[in-house]
Amino acid sequence: MAEAAGQRIPAPGGPVIEVRDLVTHYGERQILHGVSLEVRPGEIMVIMGGSGSGKSTLLRHLLGLERPSSGSIRILGRELTEMSELELYQQSRRIGVAFQGGALLSSLSVGENVMLPLREHTKLDPGTMEIMMRLKLEIVSLAGFEKLMPSELSGGMIKRAAFARAIIMDPALLFCDEPSAGLDPVVSRALDELILRLRDAMRMSIVVVTHELESAFRIADRLAVLDRGRILALGSVEEVRGSPNPRIQNLLQRRFEEEVLDPEAYLERLTGGVAP
Amino acid sequence: MPLPEGAGSRVVRGAESVGRSAVAALDAVGFGASLLSQSGVWLLFGRRRGQAVRAQPVFAEMMEIGIRALPIVTMLSLTIGMMLAIQGIDSLRPFGAEYQVTIGVTLSVTREFAPLITGILVAGRSGSALAARLGSMTIQSEIDALRVMGVNPVRYLVVPSLLAMLIMLPCLVIWSDLVALGGAGLYVTSELGMSLGAYADQSLKYLDVEDLLHGLSKSALFAALITVIAVVDGSRVRGGAEGVGRATTSSVVHAISAIVLTDMLFVYAATR
């Protein structure tokens, strides 16, 4: 039975995320140019790209924080672009998000932050919530830190606490925004291991948005390389590494690619469109 | 007469800038109205929508907005009451009417000074704190985090502040009325040799329930204005910590301007 309580459950083995021809604009500027991709159940999909490639915009659309100009986004079998605000809130209970900076509420302790989704969406008694909170903090190696405030944690600890909050409702789908950004290699590697552990232990589908190549190659089952709002490559780590596309090779070799402008456009950019 | 070279484009740019500011102001007013209506919906139907407004954050906000503001409200109200009595007696003495000071002080405190001063004080103290809190939450993606956790930010952050403000500002105004009239009484009794009982009798004789309600209705309006302006300014922060500072300052300026303007319109409508 595909329908349950008005909610379509994705067919077993079918994609948990299906993006088709996604187009989006900020004002008059087009950011995403017909992006299409799929995320399969239980896989880690890494969306990779440089600054300004549109990966953060794509993530905001996948989270329902922005509405696209056109295109379709199906998450866990439901069309995101057609959902009302209340339907989005219901859907978000099945999704966890670990933001780049953690986004822990600074007025709440680590434990209260982790328990927040439980407090808001369940009728569990406080004792059970605390046990679940400690369990998740244990998973992210933060046991005993529940009474600290976010301002008392290091960058790596904040990210791990954000992971604990993201998985507290045992989501089917986890999004991680730049998990390694700004961390030293040891902590970054520990977070990669945590992501792999979450996939294996909790059978989550995980979408990681990052620009860190080492981290991406370490954790990805499949990679999507985004550049100037378009998917340049989509496939396994080997397929992406072996891509003949020069823009992908530039990204992999960390070669800076200078933008080629015709003289007219360059003059217009310098003068702001006003004749000197 | 033809415009000098370049003047035309300056006029056009000036008109554009005025137009943009007007559109931004209208947009902010629309957003504020939408926040108010959303707050009403969450307050009334939150439980049915699976996200009831919780009492604990409302009490916490009431503590912050009301109880912790008591010392400063008391000090200012006492000072203003005495200041009005000093000015009143000094102005009426040449006419031999200094005993009429009680009526002037009683009406100006209850109808005007207590709600206005308390409103301005709460705008500077709690409105700015709310704008700063929301601004810093916005730039640190905490508002987005709430949304993706399925928690409506209006229900979770705005409604408790709005409710607390709507309850506590009128309470502070009642307290300010009492303290200011008490302060005025201290000066009047010592200056005019009147007993405190006679002063209180005279005050109550001139004071109408309508005067009290006039002040309290205004304070409820101010409460809504302070909260909505703080939320609008705080949630539109751009540009990091500097942006939070700018939003906090503009929230205080906007709230005080709105309070004074609303006060004038309210008085005009209520006294005609």
Plain-language structure description:
The complex is a heterodimer of chains A (about 280) and B (about 270). Chain A has about 280 residues and is an alpha/beta fold. Helix content of chain A is about 35%, strand content about 25%. Chain A contains 10 helices and 12 strands. Chain A has a 6-stranded mixed β-sheet with strand order 8-9-10-5-11-12, sandwiched between helices. The longest helix of chain A is centred in the C-terminal third of the chain and has 18 residues, at about 185-200. The relative contact order of chain A is 0.15. Chain B is globular. The longest helix of chain B has about 40 residues, at about 155-190. Chain B is about 85% helix and about 0% strand. Chain B is mainly α and about 270 residues long. Chain B is built from 9 helices and no strands. Chain B has one domain (about 55-270). The interface between A and B is medium-sized, with 26 and 19 residues.
Quickly count the helices of chain B. 9
Strand content of chain B: under 5%
Q: Looking across the biggest beta sheet of chain A, what order are the strands in? A: 8-9-10-5-11-12
Tell me, what's the shape of chain B? globular
Order of SSEs of chain A = EEEEEHEEHEHHHEHEHEEHHH
* Total beta strand runs of chain A: 12
Look at the structure and give the mean pLDDT of chain A. 87
The biggest chain-chain interface is: A-B, 26 and 19 residues
Largest beta-sheet details of chain B = none
Strand percentage of chain A: 15-25%
Query: Element order, helices and strands of chain B?
Result: HHHHHHHHH
Share of residues in helices of chain A = 25-40%
Q: Report mean pLDDT of chain B, rounded to a whole number.
A: 92
| Rg of chain A, nearest Å | 20 Å
Query: How many beta strands in the DSSP annotation of chain B?
Result: 0
Class computed from helices, strands and strand pairing of chain A: alpha/beta
